[in-house]
Amino acid sequence: MIVRVRLRNPDREIEVAGDRKVHDVLIELGIDPDTVLVIRDRELLTRHDRVGEDELIEIRPVISGGAGAAVRGGRS
Amino acid sequence: MSRMRCRRCRGPAAIEIRRHNAAFCRACFIHHVHEQVRRAIDGHAMFEPADRILVAVSGGKDSLALWDVLLDMGYDAGGLYLGLGIGGYSSRSADVVRTFAQERDADLLEVDLAAAYGFDIPTAGRKGSRSTCSVCGLSKRYVFNRAAIEHGYDVIATGHNLDDEAATLLGNTLRWQTDYIARQSPVLAAEDGLLKKVKPLYRLSELETAGYAFLRGIEYVVEECPLVAGNTQLRYKQVLNHLEAASPGTKAQFFLSYLERGAPLFARQDEVTLRPCQECGQPTTGRFCAFCRARAQVLGRRLGEPPTDLEVARGSSSEVLPAEIHGPPR
Prior knowledge:
The complex is a heterodimer of chains A (76) and B (330). Chain A has 76 residues and is mainly beta. Helices cover 11% and strands 39% of the residues of chain A. Chain A is built from one helix and seven strands. The termini of chain A are far apart.
């Protein structure tokens, strides 16, 4: 009983045990739930939602650190 | 366990925001985001309904979410995309920005750094003395200000969010850069040759801006800039996220409390006299502005020399606008 997980940056796909809460999947992968969106069938999942067998979920990071946000308190 | 419920309507929740100890359905979350942006705009008198706002858009979640919110609120908000020349990343970013603007019939300005100024960011990172992220930020500030003035905008809005601001404050505090700390504000007033700049998303976390973009169906570039690896800002964000995981609300407390109680303690130390850059004529504290200095270094030319034929053809050598005013201390 597995769930396929699409990870980003870089894009790749892995398989983990399914039929459990999103929170448990994230913990197994060492991912802080507040730093990602978890997406299934174009819908967001909360950490209390369950993922079933043979489902595909995307774990999309929300952290960005692009240019212009350097240490200084300047504008960009 | 049954599905989480929305704090406002008790319907099934789409997103949980732990620092608010709350979850929201799609509609109530969009309401929540609008409410936070409204508080930011009104609380800091960022702009008036009649103002023309230029949103600095990168193709990422924050800037497109900001543009979407402002348009949805009925503001006259156009976008500016700066082509940085970072290969496929820049191409894909430009595509999503154009699609966003077309779908909303919104005004979009585009500037290509290489075409307008003769260099791109990867080249500047290799040839110049500044880090890639530094010269990128410098170029953005320069071009955004110039374009906003040239096109008659009243204010520039950027997509800096709570995580960005908290990480910046942490970095400046670790170095006790009191002059930078004093200038960290959601609003930077207009001054000689510099347009007013605002950060309407400063009350919203990255999770909230990403959630908003997703729930609004905004296509944005998920991939990170390939040149950003090792960025100091990212390290500060990771540290803050560790604290946030153990104690939700830490980031908001750190930055929002700074604005309320810390900022008044840091007097601005950067009050200096501005004078025209001898290369481009725009305000600077020195003889040449930082953008002109960086550009000259990358192009291998000496400041103060007449422009080359190519620069004359581009029409950009002596028309560029201020750059470093909001970067390094003046």
